[in-house]
Structures are given as C-alpha cells and as structure tokens.
Amino acid sequence: MGVRELLAEAVFTRVAGEDGPDRRTRIHGEVGPRRFGPDDPIWGVHGDASMFVGGIRALLLQSLHPLAMAAVDQHSGYRGDPWGRLQRTSGFLAETTFGTVETSERAVRIVRAIHGRVHGTAPDGRPYAADDPHLLTWVHVAEADSFLRAHDRYGARRLTAAERDTYVAQTAEVASALGADDPPTDTEGLRARLEAFRPELVSTRAAREAARFILLTPPVPWTLRAGYTALGAAAVGLLPVWARRPLRLPWLPITEATAFRAAGGAATSTIRWAMQAPSTFEEPAPSAEAGSGPGRQG
C-alpha cells in the first residue's frame, strides 16, 4: 500500500470509523429514491475535503450558545470519545445527504429519539433540551454557515450564487425534519438568522475548554498532527472576529490571509488527493434510481 492509500485509510478511519468502508458502500449502493443527487450542491459541499475545516469551525461557533454547549458538555462525552462523536456526526451527514429517502428518514428518527433523552440545566440555571426547536436551529445555522464558508474558501469548485442558495435550502430540508424552527432557505436568510442569534452567544468556561481541546489537545496521532493543526488554523481564520473574543482566539489578519490560508489549502488539497485514491475506497456506482428523475424528491 502506497503513501496515498495509507493516508486515505488513516483519515477515513478516523472520520468514519472501522466500519466506514462498509457503511459507505451501503449508503451509496442502496437502491431507492433519493432527495438529492450528484448534481446537487449539497453533494458537492458535503463530499469535499473542505468539510474538515468547516466541521472544526462549526464546533467552535456552536459552543458560543450556552444552552447548546451545556448539552454537549454534559451529555456528548466529546472528551472521552471525540472520534466516536465525529463518526456519528459524519455518518448522519452521509446518510441524509447521499442515502436513499428511507435511509435518511431512519437516520433522522434515530437522532430525534436521542435528542428526546437529552435535557438538563445549564450552569447559569436555565433548563435546556436537545430537541428544543430554537437550539436545533442554532446548531443548523452554525453548521450550514461553516460548511458553506469553508467550501467557498477551500472547496474544489466554487459554487455560483444560485448554487449557494440551493445548498442552504437543501440543508434546511434535513434541519426541518430534525425539528428546527423555520430554518433559512437562502444565503441572505442564513446571514440574517446567524446575526439574530448573536445576543444569545456568550463566553462560558465550557466553550473555552472545548475550544482548547479542539485546537490544542485533540487526540490526534503525531503522524496527522501537522495536518490537523493546519485545518484548525484555517477554521479559526474563517471565524468572524466577534466569535473569537469569547473563545479567546486571536485575530491575526495578515497571518491568516497568508500563512493560515496557504496551510489550510495545502491540508485540504492533500486530503482530497488522498481520498481520491482509486484502490482504497472505491466509489460505488450510483443506482438507477439515484439523483434526478422520477425517484427524486425536493
């Protein structure tokens, strides 16, 4: 096995888990109607290496909502099993993006059932529940904004304005199914909704600790540490200034525009190159009912 295949296996196993190849084959090879197809923006964004940057940015941004962060801090076990949490998240994204309607709906039912059991009290005394439509909307908005901005900067192909709006609308379908409250359906609505959440976002000890864990002490083997550091720097570089101060993250405009951006581009390009290794994780042929046509919904 060559360097490319070894790198692909290391990255894919970390993100998707030991059963990742089998799950990938099942998701892509399953016959049945799909909401989205290969020509849809959501396929292009969620299948691109820029998602590594977008995922880190989303976690940092989401941590700023004290109720959402309390739920993660008290229930997710991200410190003890961060890769397990990442693998469950990546699996849900894969099933709802690339899977059949049946697969997507099953994934949504499972997550909704889990959310129904997650509730408690935040350190500030307020109750929270993971199935709260308002909190679900925040999590969705932070993810959609992060994934889209990371793709704008580091994606293999830049989306047109119309494709960016379509991407937001397509992600809103999944968010609505999860119970989010009227998620935005275009980029302007996404920007406005993110701005509307700002008064609720604050610095908390849990958020600062999560940022340190994500950026400084992640359970990453030394062979991948340099690449992960580059991805983390790229993610911080995409955060707005107002989101950095509460997390005590620096704003270095010149460095971010040069060194961070170059490092992020190199890291995502390397991951993209590795994951395209044809002999490692062969892409299953799309089924006859996948993508556009009578089986397509939405």
Q: Number of helix segments?
A: 14
Q: Describe the oligomeric state of these chains in a short phrase.
A: single chain
Terminal CA distance = 42 Å
- The portion of residues assigned to helices is 55-70%
Shape: globular
Low-confidence stretches: 277-298
C-alpha Rg, in Å? Answer: 18 Å
Q: What's the number of domains?
A: 1
How would you sum up the major sheet?
A: 2 strands, antiparallel
Task: Kindly name the structural category.
Answer: mainly alpha
Q: Which H/E pattern describes the elements?
A: HHHHHHHEEHHHHHHH
Strand order of the largest sheet: 1-2
Number of strands: 2
Mean model confidence by pLDDT: 83
Strand content: under 5%
Protein name: DUF2236 domain-containing protein
GO molecular function: oxidoreductase activity
InterPro entries: MPAB/Lcp_cat_dom
